[in-house]
Design a protein that fits this description.
Helix content: 25-40%
Number of strands: 7
Structural class: alpha+beta
Strand order of the largest sheet: 3-2-7
Order of helices and strands: HEEEEHEEHHE
Mean pLDDT: 90
Low-confidence stretches: none
Bound molecules: adenosine-5'-diphosphate, magnesium ion
Length: 150
Amino acid sequence: MDDPKAQIMCALTHLKKIVNTAVKNISPFYITKPWGIAEQPDFINAVVLLETTLSPLKLIHVLQEIENKMGRKKVQRNGPRVIDLDIIFYDNFILNHDDLTLPHPRYSDRAFVLQPLFDIAPQLILPNGQQLRDHLATLDLSTITRIETQ
Ligand code: ADP
Ligand code: MG
């Protein structure tokens, strides 16, 4: 909502301030046509590599604090929001907790997650043993458009 690029820049500023955590890499940004509900502005998606000593649960709670600080309100699922911070992978942890599922349960069909992930981790092997590169080749990339970050 509002200015999605500015929202992502703002989120990055917050991520850089998380205790015991370093932002190691930031992907290019991608414009994505909204999924599910058509009558809303385009989304912008990006993937960030963090190095942290926070536990997965601590990290998701910190990310949720950032979402709240940025004014995210509980709205429609898949609907417009100022920011959405998800954890896709945390090393190769598998977790099924009320607050956190790892890996993220819905990453594997999402070009807007996997293309920026590939940009910063081209050698990544997915939890099923498949090369990210090979899986990405099966997805429809026409739904996303890379934009200039600068
Ligand atoms: P979505 O990201 O699917 O659009 P929300 O951001 O509203 O939806 O998240 C809904 C819930 O998903 C949150 O309460 C959060 O605790 C939970 N959740 C479970 N696994 C994850 C994950 N890997 N990353 C982010 N949130 C997660
Ligand atoms: Mg989320």
